[in-house]
């Protein structure tokens, strides 16, 4: 299925007629343009309140009418809600009392593609009218109910919930501990509900055949049992209705609690409980600051000052090294002079004629050596031991001292910031009596909530008990039918029906096992693509009876879904939806409203990179500027067919859909 066009007329925030092209476009590849690259994503951008959710609501309303607005919605309530969906113009003189939606899509049936158009219109205070066109021809022979039934067969309601969804609300799928939502979806998607319906029809057939041969007393007994069974079912339904009302009260009280807590937080209540902790923290920080200051003073008294003048100290060491060498040469010269004097004395007694010549040569060499010795004045004249000690202080001890000083100074800066923040927190904390009234109100509301939760649980248990009693009686009815069907078992129809029931039981078990295995594989693959790296050590397990999906870690522990963050629940639910879609083989578009609202940056990157381009052949994304932002638009540029911006005009209190996005008009590419 491909949705090609959506037309809105005076629907919610959209004034007048808005025609939106939703058909994905392909991009030409190469110079010849013979190859085409399919781009599945149609991106809508709009700020909160601009009308993104209205587009999703319009598509669902066009397809399902009353069921799109509520499962148990009565006729009058449906008419009232339709009236609320008509655009309320800012100018009372131009106020319209009519609205309509047109949805055009291509659907493949038995190998042939057909174009359908749904036209649903209504007037304030009246029921909607529904017409259907196929390949440009109106199906005038179909009544309203027949048209709606036809649409329900094309795309069952339970399936659409898995393909057209609000990103912030699908996390409820992860919170459904009963497994009822997932079980219903799996049965519809995998065709198991058809098997159940066929078994039910065959059971009715066998009951009728059995009753035909039963005695009059059996008829009376069966009638009594059936009436009792229906009474229990009615009581169960009534109790469930009461439980739903209690649940509404719980939700209302929870809303009040959140409002009180917000008010408490705004008045500094969040700081009241932490005042003593903040004071203790401040005392500890002050002590640590004193220790650091003591350490810095100690370093200043040792070799740290040397490290604070590196260039001057380096020049000093260089001068001292030159002086050390000069002193060594002078010392050597003194020793050499003494040796030459001794040698001269000995040669004076030598009668050899060459002795005076040798002595003169030695004297000349010594004089030349002395002329090259520096005769600069010693500035410091330190001993070699003092020079070595200073060298160690400069190149080792001073550097280590500076390192300790720098670390202490950095920590001291951090401490001063922490002390300032702690002081602000202490000053922010109100006196206990200022917030005690709100604290008491929150506690009282919480007590009321706990009582309602207990009442809800008790009523729900009573409803379940009534349903179990109805099931017990139903089994008695079944046994009674089986007891008195012997005389009709010879009939070929009864025998075939019984054989079919047994075959259906076996087939349903095998089909369920195969589908569950496939669903586990698809879910795990999707979850591994979308989850963060730290969550990838989980494996999936699906209960073949309840179809509840569990994540199990390497130690066999089941992940507590209540402990999941909102973003983790959304990734969990999207993985389930994608797995269901792939397992069912349904080729439907995916429409996502507010896709990234609850996700952190890692989950957002995963969803953008691995889900949106592969979710379906057509993906309609309704996003704010903080979700699909400029960087994500750039990373999805090869997969985005075209983009729309929903622009709200505060003067007319209405929105328009124009091609483009938040960062300027869209550049039209070659189709």
Task: Give a written overview of the molecule.
The chain has 20 helices and 16 strands. The protein is α/β, with parallel strands linked by helices and 671 residues long. The strands form four sheets. A six-stranded antiparallel beta sheet has the order 2-1-6-7-8-9, with helices on one face. Helix 8 (192-212) packs antiparallel against helix 17 (492-530), helix 13 runs antiparallel to helix 14 (355-371) and helix 17 (492-530) crosses helix 18. It is elongated and about 160 Å long. The chain starts with a strand and ends in a 12-residue tail after the last strand. Mean pLDDT is 79; it is low at 665-671.
The largest pleated sheet is described as:
6 strands, antiparallel
Secondary structure category: alpha/beta
List the uncertain runs: 665-671
- Average pLDDT figure: 79
Helix amount, in percent? 55-70%
What is the strand arrangement across the widest sheet? 2-1-6-7-8-9
Instruction: Compute the CA-based radius of gyration.
Output: 44 Å
- Total strands: 16
Euclidean distance between termini CA atoms: 21 Å
Strand content: 5-15%
Tally of DSSP helical segments? 20
Question: What characteristic shape results from the CA principal axes?
Answer: elongated
